[in-house]
Amino acid sequence: MENLKKISNYSFILSIIGIVFGMIFQTMAYWGSSYTVGMMWFWIGAFLSYAFSLTAIFLMFLKTKELKLSIVDIVMRIIFIIISFANIVWTTFVIIAGLSGM
What we know:
transmembrane helix, transmembrane, 0% strand, membrane, single chain, DUF3902 family protein
């Protein structure tokens, strides 16, 4: 059970870091394509946002079949998955909007 708490804590931290990278990445989208160095950091921010969110989702599904979860654990997992999934969708939206020239 202690392992589950560690995995949940890691997943929470990773989802929060993913959101922070998503917010920073969104501000980089306004820099425009004229800044070559800025566009490099734009794609690095997008990659880090995706990486941390997907890692958080992966950790949520790690070893869940073997454990009996309480209602609080299930609700926390659902919240973390929604937050991480929303970050992935938002990052994808910002990339599409940036590439279309909005």
